[in-house]
Amino acid sequence: MRFKNNYILIIFFIFWACEKDFLNVVPDNIATIDLAFNNRATAERFLSTCYTYIPEHAHAEQNFSLIAGDEIWYYAENDFYMNNETSIRVAKGLQNSSSPYLNYWEGGRGAPHSLFVGLRDCNIFLENLISVPGLEEDERQRWLAEVKVLKAFYHFWLLRMYGPIPIIRDNLYVGASLEESQVPRNSVDEVVDYIVELIDEVIASEALPGIINYIYTEQGRMTLPAAKAIKAKALVLAASPLFNGNPDFSELISPEGNPLVSQTYDQNKWILAKDALLDAINEAHSNGHSLYQFTDQVPINGDINDVVRQELTQRAAITEPFNPGIVWAFEPAWTGDLQMWSQPRWTADHQALFGYTKKSHAPTLNMVETFYTKNGVPINEDISWDYDNRFSVTSINEDDEYHEYYVESNYSTAKLHLDREPRFYSTVGFDGGKWFSLETPNINEIPFLNAKAGAPSGKNGFEIYSITGYFAKKLVHFENIISLQGSTIKGYSFPIIRMSDLYLNYTEALNETKDSPDAEVYEYIQAVRYNAGLDLEGDLLNTWAQYSNNPGKPTTKEGMREIIRQERMVELALEGYRYWDLRRWKLAEEYFSRPIRGWNIVRPDVEGFYEVENIYYRNFLKKDYLWPISQNEILRNPNLIQNPGW
C-alpha cells in the first residue's frame, strides 16, 4: 500500500516494556498521542502505521506458509543469497517453545512485529480518531472501518497460528494491576465471533469503498469485498476439522474449566461460512471482481495463441496488479526478490547476471504430482495415463500438438511432465519444459530449460540452484527481461485473497452442508475449472465418468470433498494456501510427514538425473498444528496455557 505521501511514521510512543509484556497498557505519555492526532496528516501517518503490521506475503519468512509446508524446498537454510532460515526450519520440524521461530506473539525470529503490538496500535487509533482538524467525517469513518478490519485480520492471523488467543477489544488503562494485565486465552469460537462482530460493524457503517479508485496512492487499503472475504475465511476456519470438534485439543481448557477448542462437531458453522462466502462473492462481483482472463496483446512477433494465452491467464492472475481476480493484495516491499529466487537460467546473460536468476525457490515433486492430467482428473485415477511408469524417461516429436508450446520436442524428459493439465505448465518449470516471457522472440521459439547438472538451469556449484530440479514459474512475471543490455524485473503486489479462493471455499462449504452434492455445489468449482481450461467437453461429472477409475467420485459428499481439496491445492499452488488448508483439514500429518522429493540434480546424464531423490524426512506431529507460545511468555502470564505437546 502507498499512502499519498508515501511514508510510514514510526510512532515513537510505542515502547517495549522491560518485561516485554505485549498485551500491555496504553503508554501514559498522553500528550505524545494527542500530537499524533492533532491534524489530518499525522493521523494519516498513524493509519499507515496500523497497516505496517500486515506480514509481507511475498517474503519467505514473514509469510512462512510459502515454504513451511511441502510445496517448496531450498538447498540450504540460509546463505548470502537467501532469507528463509526460520521458515525452512519450521518446515523441517525444528520449531521450539523456548525461542519460537516466526514469533508473531512477541515479535522476533523472523516475525518483524508482535501482532499484539499491532492490535494495541489499532486500538490507540480507534480510541483517538475523534475530532481531527482537516479530516472530513466520511473519511474519518472510512479510516475507522479500515482499522477495525485490520484488527479482525490480525486476530485471524494469530488464530490460524496459535488457535485460542486473547481477544484485544481495548487497551488496558494506565493504572491496570498486574492481575488485570495477565489476560487468559479466549476460545476459538469467541475469537471468531469477535472477528465477525468487528466486520459486521464495518459492513453496517457503509464506510468502506467497494473498490480502490486511486490505485497508485491507496493500493492495498481495505475495501468492502476484502472485509467480507476476511470474515468468511475466519468462519471457514472455525467450521473446519481443526477447530470444529477436535478431540486432539481436549486439554486446552480455560482457567474456568471451559474448552478453548470446540469438542463437538457443529454443522451450523459450515452454514454460517457458506452464507458469508456467498455474501463476499456477491459483493466482489458487484464491484467488478471476477475470475481473471488474460486478454492483453503481447509485444512479440506475431502475438500469442490460445495455448499461451491460457498459460498467461494463470500466471498473470498472480503477477498482474489490480486485475479483477484479486480481492485483496498488500505489498509495501518489492516482490522482485521472490521472483529472482524463482527465476531459472537458459541464456548466457542469465548465467552472467546470476543475481537476477537465483533459481532456488524450488517446487517439490510432492506438489508436482498434485496436478491433474490433461483430462482433468488426478494422475493416479486417469485410466489413460501411465501412472506406474511416470518417472521413466520419454520424449515427444514435432507433430505433438498438445505439447508444442509446453515441452521441447526430441528432448528426454519424465513421463510425469507429459499430458498434464494447463495449470501444471503455467505453474512449474521443469527439465525440458518451455518458459514463455518477453525474452521469447515468437511463440515458435519459446526457450526451454535444461536442469541437469552443469546445464544452464541446473546445479553449477555449491550454491544458487534448485534442490528439486523444478522452478516456480507461476511467481515470475512474464514481462521480466534479464539481459546484459538492461534487465527489468516487474514487481507486483502478492495476492492475499483471490476470487478462485472464495469460489472454492464456497464450494467446500456448500458440500459440507448437504447430504450429497448437487448443481449448486458444482457451480463455482466448475467455473474455476473452465477458467483453467478443463472440462471443455462437458463438466466435471462427465470428466470423471469418462476418464477416472472412480467414475462416481463427484456424486458423493466424501468424493466431492476430495475433489474440492485437490482443486484448491492445484489452483492456489505456490501461493501459501496449501499450508493453511492442510492444517485446517487435519491432513498435515499425512502430507508433511512424507519425504520431500525431487530429482537427482547432481547428475548430468538423463538416466541419472531422473532418479527420484528423498531430500528430507520430516515427522509432522499433532503438536505442530498449533504454534508454541514462548516459555518466557508463559512464565510472565500464568493465565496463558501452553498449546498441547509444547
Describe this structure in words.
- It is a single chain.
- This protein has helices at residues 30-36, 40-51, 85-91, 115-128, 137-162, 178-181, 188-205, 215-218, 224-239, 268-286, 306-319, 336-342, 348-352, 365-368, 422-427, 499-513, 519-531, 540-547, 557-571, 577-584, 588-592, 606-609, 631-636, and strands at residues 72-73, 326-329, 362-363, 393-394, 413-414, 428-429, 471-472, 495-498, 596-599, 612-616.
- The protein contains 23 helices and ten strands.
- By secondary structure, the chain is mainly alpha-helical.
- Strands 1-3 form a two-stranded antiparallel sheet.
Q: Which key features would you list for this structure?
A:
23 helices, disordered N terminus, 10 strands, mainly alpha, single chain, two-stranded antiparallel ribbon
Give the helices and strands, then pairings.
Elements: H1 30-36, H2 40-51, E1 72-73, H3 85-91, H4 115-128, H5 137-162, H6 178-181, H7 188-205, H8 215-218, H9 224-239, H10 268-286, H11 306-319, E2 326-329, H12 336-342, H13 348-352, E3 362-363, H14 365-368, E4 393-394, E5 413-414, H15 422-427, E6 428-429, E7 471-472, E8 495-498, H16 499-513, H17 519-531, H18 540-547, H19 557-571, H20 577-584, H21 588-592, E9 596-599, H22 606-609, E10 612-616, H23 631-636
Antiparallel strand pairs: 1-3, 2-8, 4-5, 6-7, 9-10
Helix pairs in contact: 2-4, 4-5, 5-7, 5-9, 7-9, 9-10, 10-16, 16-17, 16-19
